[in-house]
Design a protein that fits this description.
alpha+beta
Length: about 150
């Protein structure tokens, strides 16, 4: 699914607004992300946060900011939330009103994750078990016992 997060630091209202959109039509879903138009997206959720609360959370760290931004109605996955938090931090580092769109595509993210090999820095971290031989079908075992 293709999603867009419109992030707006509104100085006049002293608020941060985040609007979550997604492509809901099958035709637009087949388009490449750069070719999508605003009208291809449907609004899913709108969230507003007080600027003071956002600034306090940023001072405490990215994890605190993520805890502030996430709620029952707005809960992007970890990768997207990390990007949203980075964008919010960058906006609050600058003076004045800021807005930006973060457009993401689950297909691109998942294909990128699948293309990366499993890496581990700890020799004892994980062992991937590979079957040593093909398991026999239980019905085949019953037939062999009858013979």
């Amino acid at each position: 699914m293709k999603q867009k997060y419109h992030i707006w630091k509104n100085d006049n209202q002293q608020q941060l607004h985040i609007d979550e959109y997604a492509v809901t039509s099958a035709d637009a879903g087949r388009q490449k992300t750069p070719g999508l138009q605003s009208e291809d997206f449907s609004l899913l959720c709108q969230q507003s946060y007080a600027t003071d609360d956002v600034a306090d959370a940023i001072l405490k760290g990215k994890d605190s900011l993520i805890l502030l931004l996430r709620n029952t109605h707005f809960f992007p996955n970890g990768l997207y939330m990390d990007k949203i938090a980075d964008q919010v931090i960058a906006m609050y580092a600058l003076q004045g009103e800021q807005h930006d769109d973060l457009v993401v595509d689950d297909k691109e993210v998942l294909s990128g994750m699948l293309a990366k090999p499993l890496e581990s820095t700890d020799d004892n971290a994980a062992v991937v078990m590979q079957p040593t031989k093909k398991e026999k079908d239980p019905l085949q075992l019953v037939e062999e016992e009858k013979q």
